[in-house]
Every structure is written in structure tokens, then in C-alpha cells.
Design goal:
244 residues; mainly alpha; elongated
């Protein structure tokens, strides 16, 4: 009996929902007719005039939505500058609904997701998402891959994805091709070299890691990086020797 009661309530609720939608649709049409002065056109001239008026309305709507997407993007950038990663992530996600083929938006979303995932582990920020079901590392990976699908020469996304694989997801093999491609053009980027050398070291490719550390030392980006490269090179040499 209780089951039948719930079924009746559900059917009544659905009926009222559709009735409300139908009334809203009729009201909206009446408002449009009043605003545009178009009602049941029949002649060729009336039809042409009606089409022209509704096209103008449609263009206004497109312009408004485009502007809204730009504002969400700008808002995301402002939040990102203030290291408010959760709000930046939400803003970039909303901007993507307006611009689904914008590689920059996916890159920014991926970066924010990576920061959020890191903060969930280290408890660094207060406004962490309440929904723990979202895997922000996987979300970050997917967003970087989407950015590269849109623009395969998006070097920042290559680097970001490589760093994500090496330092957060611990999937070192996956990082190597992206970081190698990144360094083919960014030939003096020592951050990329450190990330790739780390991936090589952690996959047992010690000779490749040593070669990259030598290159960093040769480039002399700054004193601290040279010291880090010399220290890491020694670790790679020791590992190479012990594995002979």
C-alpha cells in the first residue's frame, strides 16, 4: 500500500512538473511576442520580418553567453593568482562549458586540479572540496590530455603532464615521452631536464639521467640548481655502479 502511495505521489509530482514547464513555455512565448511584435506570421513578408527579429535576439544571446565565458576565465585567473585553487578550478570548469575547445582553459583547470590534489594530501588550504569522490589527479591528467588533443604543440601542457606523472601520480614511464618532446624545443629549460632526469633515474635509466644532469651543470642556470644537479648525478652514478 505504501509503495502504491509513493507511486501516486511521484506521478502527481511529475504531472505538476510538466504542467509548470508547459505554462512557463507559454508565458515565455507571450513575452517574446510582446517584446518583438511578432505573433503568428503568415505572409512571406511577415515571416521574413519574424525571422529577422528572432535572429537579432539569438545573436544577443550568443554575445551575452560569450561574454559570460570570458568573465569566468578572467575570474579563474584572478583566483589562481591568489592561490585560491578550488574557486579557480570551478571558474575554469564553468568557462569550458562556453569554450569547450579552448586549450588554455583545460591547461589551467589541470593545474588547479593538481594543486588541489596536492593540498588534499598536505592539508595546505582551508577551502578544500567537500566532495571526496572526485579524483583530482585523474581530473588533472584528463584536462592536460584534452589540452594536448586540441593543440598537440602545447609545450606548457606537456611539461605540466610530465611533472604530474613524475611527482604526483608516480607513473614515470608515462612522463618520459612528454618531457622528451617538451625538451626538443625548450632546449635550455632546466626544470624540464630535472623532471625528465628524475623519471629516468626512477625507471633505472641511469645513463640518461646522468647525461641530463651534466647538461644542467654545463648550462649553469643558478648556483642552487647546479648543486642539486651535482648531488643527483652522484646518486645516479652510485645506482648505476651498484647495478652492474
Amino acid at each position: 500500500m505504501k509503495k502504491n502511495f509513493y507511486l501516486i505521489i511521484s506521478l502527481v509530482a511529475i504531472f505538476f512538473l510538466f504542467a509548470a514547464c508547459s505554462k512557463s513555455s507559454v508565458s515565455l512565448k507571450r513575452m517574446q511576442q510582446l517584446e518583438e511584435g511578432v505573433s503568428n506570421p503568415n505572409t512571406i513578408d511577415e515571416l521574413k520580418d519574424a525571422i529577422a527579429k528572432y535572429e537579432r535576439r539569438a545573436m544577443d544571446l550568443v554575445t551575452t553567453e560569450a561574454q559570460e565565458g570570458i568573465w569566468y576565465k578572467m575570474l579563474g585567473v584572478r583566483y589562481l593568482e591568489k592561490q585560491m585553487y578550488v574557486r579557480a578550478y570551478d571558474s575554469f570548469s564553468k568557462a569550458i562549458t562556453f569554450y569547450p575547445d579552448n586549450a588554455n582553459l583545460y591547461f589551467n583547470k589541470a593545474a588547479c586540479a593538481g594543486f588541489i590534489a596536492n593540498s588534499q594530501v598536505e592539508k595546505k588550504i582551508d577551502d578544500l572540496p567537500k566532495d571526496d569522490s572526485v579524483d583530482y589527479l585523474k581530473t588533472s591528467e584528463a584536462a592536460y590530455l584534452r589540452a594536448l588533443a586540441i593543440n598537440e604543440r602545447y609545450y606548457q601542457a606537456m611539461y605540466g603532464l610530465g611533472v604530474l606523472y613524475v611527482f604526483q601520480m608516480k607513473e614515470y614511464e608515462k612522463a618520459i615521452p612528454y618531457l622528451k618532446t617538451f625538451l626538443e624545443t625548450q632546449t635550455k629549460n632546466t626544470d624540464g631536464m630535472f623532471a625528465l632526469a628524475c623519471a629516468y633515474y626512477l625507471t633505472g635509466s641511469y645513463a640518461e639521467a646522468i647525461s641530463l644532469y651534466d647538461k644542467i651543470i654545463e648550462l649553469k642556470p643558478n648556483e642552487q640548481k647546479v648543486k642539486d644537479a651535482e648531488k643527483n648525478k652522484k646518486l645516479a652514478l652510485d645506482a648505476q655502479y651498484s647495478n652492474r
